[in-house]
Amino acid sequence: MHGDGNGWTWCAHGHRHWGVHGAAGLMVRSLDAHGEPRILMQHRASWTAHGDTWGLPGGARDSHESPHEAALREAAEETGIVGGSVQLVDELVDDHGGWSYVTVVAQAPHLLAVRLNAESEALRWVREALVDQLRLHPGFARTWPRLRALGRAG
Ligand SMILES: [Zn+2]
C-alpha cells in the first residue's frame, strides 16, 4: 500500500533509519555544456531526516516496490524527473544488515530541468568534483566514493 514504508527502524549496526522496508534513491549524472560531469543533488529541507544536508532524491520503499520502483517514484515526486528521461546504468546496495539503501545510478542526456517539492530547499546540478565540499547526508557521504566510481564507468 502506498506509504506503508514510512517510519523509523533500526539496522544491525544500531543506526536509526527512515523506511521500514529499506530506502532507495536516484543518482542522476550528466555532462554539462563544457563536458564536465555533474550530479543532481538535493538540499534536504530542515524538517526531514538528517535535514539541512545535501543528498540524493529518494526515500522509503513501500512493501510492494522494488528498489528501482521506489527510487524512480521518489525522484519523480521530488524533482519532476521521470524514469523515461534517464538511462539506468547501475545500482549500489548499501547493506546495513536487516536494512538497506539502494542507490540507482542513471545517466541523463543533458542537465534536465527540475522542479522542487516541499522536501527540498534546493535542487542543483553540482559539479562532481565539488560534491564532497557540500555538507552531506551521512548515508550519502559513506557511499559517495563508490557511487562516483560507478557513475564514471556508466
Ligand atoms: Zn545502518
From TrEMBL:
UniProt keywords, alphabetically: Hydrolase
Signal peptide: none
UniProt cross-references to Pfam families, sorted A to Z: NUDIX (PF00293)
The protein's required cofactors: Mg(2+)
Span of domain Nudix hydrolase: 19-149
Residue stretches spanning the membrane: none
Keyword Hydrolase: yes
UniProt GO molecular function: hydrolase activity
Keyword Hydrolase in record: yes
Protein name: ADP-ribose pyrophosphatase YjhB (NUDIX family)
Record organism: Oryzihumus leptocrescens
Lineage, highest ranks first: Bacteria, Bacillati, Actinomycetota, Actinomycetes, Micrococcales
